[in-house]
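Obj.: predict assembly geometry.
Materials: sequence records (below).
Method: joint structure prediction, all chains together.
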Amino acid sequence: MQPTITSKIQCILAGMSFYGDPFESRPGWDEQNEIGRLWSRFTASMPSLPANLFVKSDTAYEVHMATSETNQKGLFEVFVGMEIDIAVLTDCPLDLCVKVLPAVSYAVFTFQGETIVSDWELDVQKWLTASEFTSPFTYNCQLYDSRFKGMDKLSDSVIDVYIPIENKA
Amino acid sequence: MDPRLESINQALRYIEGHIRKDVSIAEIAEHCGYSLYHFIRLFNTYAHQTPYDYLIRRRTSEAIKDLSNNDRAIIDIAFDYCFKTPESFSRAFKRVFGILPSAFRAGQPFVDSLPIPPRTREDLQFAQLDNFVQPELITADQITLAGVSHNAEYIPQNNFTSEMEEVLQLIASNNQNRSTRYYLVSSYQEDPFKPRHRFLGFNVNNTEYPPPISIQHIPAGTFVRLACAELDQGLALRYLFYSWLPRSRMVRNGSYYFEYMITGKRKLSRTIFFPVSSS
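Observations (raw structure tokens):
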């Protein structure tokens, strides 16, 4: 499992958030868990959003953010959204929130099929330990585009996972 | 053997070994060899509960023993179980049991959930059975039963004595085609796992029977229902009281539960019902 190292410019996302344990109501990779419901809520809001709000209509992001409670309680923030241009920032309606992904280097891992639902976070951690990089950041970002066909067509699906990194030195 | 179930069982054992230590969910995940995110997902899948919620319920359940058995100050008991302040302990205790620790010590009964014992491998396996169906809420009309009542010890959960069978056959003879369908009502005082009385009978329309047969009514109301195999009755009860009830927004509404049983040629199928109301 070798990632591609890339530098990314600042990326502004508009979307929706959930905070807590997303598997409390429905565990596993279930579209009825809180992450699935978050996606449903976001996509259901699309028709009422301003036209051309998003830069790309076929690329969405799922960002997992650790907080001061994450290690202790297993609670974290999940955000789903799409990229916007800074020029339309004030066009975002009240029901969307905005996240700014900083311009840092990323290790980009590509997962397909069943590996999407495997414990790839652990594999990423092992790779980081052995690599020349560290990830002092408190988030990771999953990119879903036309290569992702849905949870019911996992074997045909591909996602990219962006891990923010910096040199250990 | 399901290795993921074994990992979650390992996590449960780790929690028991660290119930008075300031262990984090991330540390438990690491102990089991998973990332935090994957561990949370697996724990919810197998234990039907978040790991943090389980940890808090186990800590407060253990704290109850100390509140009952010794005179240590509540603040000291709070610190024993890794609550940072007595207020956070009181909040957690009230959220779990519906009353404050001071009220419990003063003798007030639980309002919401019961103290939960350690979850076992058998508990995890029960919730993963192929035929496991999540409990569901139903509303039911009053049910009238004709049968016999005894101290719980005389009506074991799984074996009906020959004397009981004779009485039941007597009732059944007056109720066509009912001989394979029983109701077993268990009444308890505080602990549903230690019922005091049981009533074994049939659903009837006619309420006039000679002694020793008596009539009992199960009141109309809302019940949670869980079906299980004959020998899984104990695990099903554990699941209902220790796992389902704490996660639901319901509370017990009466100190009894009943089982509807259908005896077949080889097996007996049970459906457990207990009365609940919105909290």
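Conclusions so far: The interface with chain B takes residues 21, 23-24, 27-29, 64, 70-76, 119, 121-122, 125 of chain A (CB under 8 Å).
To do: check interface contacts against the pulldown list.
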